[in-house]
Amino acid sequence: MNIKNRVHSFCQLGEKINNLTTDEKQQLFFRTANENPWFTPDNIELSLLGISKFLAREALETWLAGYQMKETSPKKIGVAMAGNIPMVGFHDLLCVLLSGHHLAAKLSSNDTVLMQFIIQALVEIDSAFSNLISVEERLNSVDALIATGSDNTSRYFEYYFRNTPHIIRKNRTSCAVLIGEESVSELAELGKDIFSYFGLGCRNVSKIFVPEKFDFVLMIESWKDYQPVIRHHKYANNYDYQKSIFLINKIPFYDSGFLLITENPNMVSPISVLYYETYTDQNDLKAKVQAQHDKIQCMVSAQGWFENSVAFGEAQLPDVSQYADGVDTMNFLQHLQ
After folding, report:
1. Cα 215 vs. chain centroid, distance in angstroms?
2. Are residues 17 and 156 in the same domain?
3. Quick count: other Cβ atoms within 10 Å of Cβ 230?
4. 171-207: per-residue pLDDT in tens?
5. β-bridge pairing 173-177 and 205-211
6. Structure confidence by residue, pLDDT tens digits, 125-169
């Protein structure tokens, strides 16, 4: 199975995803929700859209043109996948298989239905993938490891796989930079980056940097279309709990009725909470962002004006060439000895 065949198969996978019937989607959504209530139909649709964007032929070929895709002796690559948002492990799967290696996948217990759907679809497209993919409970005998988890989990991975080539990712989140002159429509787009996946993804905005005397009322009003998130029982439970904590501890906050906004220097906020931090000028802003560099997965700003940021509303739809934590997974896989 050469690189041309593998690319063609993934393009076919993208077409299969785009052509899923309503009945096929509903069955997939039902089975997924039984496993993980956070994975709603809207969130699965968004994830499928992102994957189909990866698998457009032009996007794949442009991405791979930056590498010398040589056929090498396949190695067994262990991938410990996260399960915070639907199919978050897909990009690693894509990289491992396109590079010609064997994928040993340890699926998250929160995301087995969707990932098994992807794997089965690949095998149906080309049966050769059945010899290149294995789902395993333990990643004991692998030639290299790619793992995504919490800061605590990463320490375990770092120790256990210290003598194995690896990419180990830790907790990251995303943030937004505002200047106070954003339009209502731009602020509404920012809402996508905050509320998609209920804020569970590393590309979700959990912290905003705003100028002093920022008008929070206008921003909150621009997010009224996202009010339905509070109808989800797990999200609502988090909202009620966090609000009670703020009230008991007399912590000042803004309340939209479905999102709590409070000043906090930390980057990672709880579900249903958005942190903010003020800045005095551009130099102060850049210094504060730089101080949190190791915790930031993605930055957003209106029309992407801030350095190394993307436009509001685009955080959850990265290009296939954008790697988690900025670590080039494909380059890592190509240079394994």
Report:
1. 29
2. yes
3. 16
4. 899 999 999 999 999 999 999 999 999 999 999 999 9
5. parallel
6. 999 999 999 999 999 899 999 998 777 888 888 888 889 999 999
In the chain, DSSP assigns E strands to 76-80, 102-106, 133-135, 144-148, 166-169, 173-177, 205-211, 254-255, 260-263, 273-279, 296-301, 310-311
CA pair distance 78, 157, nearest whole angstrom = 12
Tokens linked to 186: 């731009």
333 falls within a domain: no
Task: Give a yes or no: residue 94 inside a domain.
Answer: yes
Contact 71, 2 (CB under 8 A): yes
One-letter amino acid identity for 129? F
The tokens of 325 are what? 């934590």
Q: Do residues 32 and 119 both lie within one domain?
A: yes
Q: What domain range includes position 56? A: 3-171
pTM: 0.93
Sheet holding 205-211, edge to edge: 254-255, 260-263, 273-279, 205-211, 173-177, 296-301, 310-311
Residues 182 and 101 in one domain: no
Cα 278 from Cα 280, distance rounded (Å): 7
